[in-house]
Amino acid sequence: MPGVVAIVGRPNVGKSALFNCIARRRIAIVHDRPGVTRDRLSAEVEWLGHPFTLVDTGGIGLLKGERGGDDFAREIITQVRVALDDVDVILFVVSVQEGVVPMDLEVAGMLREAGRPVFVMVNKVDTAAHEQGVNEFAELGFEQLFPVSALHARGIDLPLGQAVNLLPEQLAKPEEQAAAEPPLNIAIVGRPNVGKSTLFNRLVGERRAIVENVPGVTRDRQYAEFERFNHRFALVDTGGFVVDEREGILAMMRHQATVAMEEADAIVWMCSVRDGVVPADEEIAGLMRQSNKPVMCAVNKCDSFELENQAMEFYGLGVERVFPISAEHNRGILD
Fold first, then answer.
1. Kind of pairing, strands 231-237 and 321-324?
2. Maximum Cα–Cα distance for the chain, whole Å?
């Protein structure tokens, strides 16, 4: 198994920009609004010949006015703690443009308790004038500080090169890895708040994606591999597919879902029986037909026999396979 490198820090310090820079492709949604990344996000990447799993975590703590309140903030912290359980190296991201703030000191305490190697990435060092503020972060109590600019891909090579040298050696030989059968890629798509993340967690077998009863919680694509029926699957959970939105974060969520569909071998399209067929479902159905991929319509929230019968109306959208399920109660999923 490859080693694991986790990116942690408070909201809006540039974790997702660093994630995309290391992964060399735009996976995480990057936006100047604090708290955009909610769930853990992972990708298999390679640096200087070292393959490893890169994990981006939700911002630790929420700013005043952020949706979700204390329970939501605790859920993000829980996701970070779970990520740290399986990590080999930590990239602790802070912002030179804001200096050391109390939350940075709290995060530093969490990371020292984790007992893993920590590289402090002092981000947003975009000009020579910013470099003067780097030494302030010695207060966090870690040996080395690395001034970087994730936005401009500067200063990343040195700390990441040191980080990958601390990763465990691969147990499998390269030729054995090449011979392994690739997993079947499955994308879960649908409107916001139809239960995509709940289904993702059920199939993966752990609470990887944050589940809240508010639309738009999942923004980045979530990726996880698992085995079922002696087959390997790569599962992708996407942000809510907002049909009419063209601006800001929601437009990026739509793009993430579209890319996931293009890369998938098969698509699980989730709808909600409680909402019935809505105009957005009809528009998404057109996109499903254009994808030329096998599509399974999972009609979620079928918590009674009567609701299972109502799920049959989704055949009117032109899909061949409709499955009434209840992701919350783990019913109908293995079908």
1. unpaired
2. 66
**DSSP one-letter code for 66:** -
Q: Can you tell me the distance from the alpha carbon of 34 to that of 259, in angstroms, rounded to the nearest whole number?
A: 24
Give residue 176's identity as a one-letter amino acid code: E
Could you tell me what percent of the chain has a pLDDT over 70? 70
In the prediction, which pLDDT does 142 show? 92
Phi/psi of residue 42, each to 5°?
-130, 155
Cα gap 160→158, rounded to integer Å: 6
pLDDT tens for 276-318 read 888 888 888 888 888 888 888 999 999 888 888 888 888 888 8
At residue 60, the pLDDT reads 62
Evaluate whether 216 touches 192 at the Cβ level (below 8 Å).
Answer: yes
The CA R_g of the chain, rounded to the nearest whole Å, is 21
- With CA atoms as reference, report the closest residue to 265 among 177, 182, 178: 182
Strands 41-47 vs 50-56: parallel, antiparallel or unpaired = antiparallel
Strand partners, 62: none
At 106, list the tokens: 């709290």
Q: pTM of this prediction?
A: 0.54
Which of 135, 59, 65 lies closest to 100 in space, CA to CA?
135
Lowest mean pLDDT among 22-31, 76-85, 119-128, 266-275: 22-31
- DSSP annotation string for 283-308: HHHHHHHHHTS-EEEEEE---SHHHH
Q: Which helix (H) or strand (E) segment is 22 a member of? A: helix 15-23
**Winning range, highest mean pLDDT, from 35-39, 228-232, 273-277:** 273-277
Q: In this structure, what token pair is assigned to residue 157?
A: 């090579």
Q: Please give the single-letter amino acid code of residue 177.
A: Q
